[in-house]
Hints:
Blueprint: H1 2-11, H2 14-36, H3 43-50, H4 54-57, H5 64-84, H6 94-107, H7 110-118, H8 125-151, H9 160-172, H10 174-177, H11 186-200, H12 209-214
Helix pairs in contact: 2-3, 2-5, 2-7, 5-7, 5-8, 6-11, 8-9
Domain HTH tetR-type: 19-79
DNA-binding region: 42-61
Pfam family, one: TetR_N
Amino acid sequence: xxxxxxxxQIRGPSRPKGQETAARVREAALKRFAASGYAAVSMxxxxxxxxxxxxxxxxxxxxxxxxxxxLMLSHMADLLEAWDSCDLGSDMDPLERFVRFHxxxxxxxxxxxxxxxxxxxxxxxxxxxxxxAERRRYEAILTEILLEGAAAGxxxxxxxxxxxxxxxxxxxxxxxxxxxxxxxxxxxxxxLYLELARKAVAPDAPPSLTGDRMT
Length: 215
């Protein structure tokens, strides 16, 4: 019993340290993948950035592929959690709420966004399916917004899922080119892209009187 208690005391503090090391591995891999691309980064380089021997990484991630999958799933989990706790006004138009949330969140997570979209091609099929399922959960939020808005006459959407992917792709592209200190502020970008999203699903306007006379 004494030996068991001693082992428990020895193992107890090791778990937080292990979690801390795993977090440092994720952070190092995130920076490396974003800067050089997944294929060009080695486990040895990640280990060097963390300050451990390469073999120590395998206590946390068996392969580089496991790290990539973990980064992508963590990104999606954080994104969905952030949406659930979004503090934008509930009385705001749902499409506006989604657009503003998406832009603000993704501009703060440029590296995570880059990896989550550009490195999908490097996921093994089984891992791709798992990550893609989480991406579809997020897309379903906007699809539901569009369906409900169309039913209420606020939006006109022939293919809600296609519109969803088009809008998300448009919004997600912002971190790849936006730079702070440029001519347009984050607020400017937000307003411009909100207008684009609204126009993409705006109900058809009735013909003007002028237009009727011309025809």
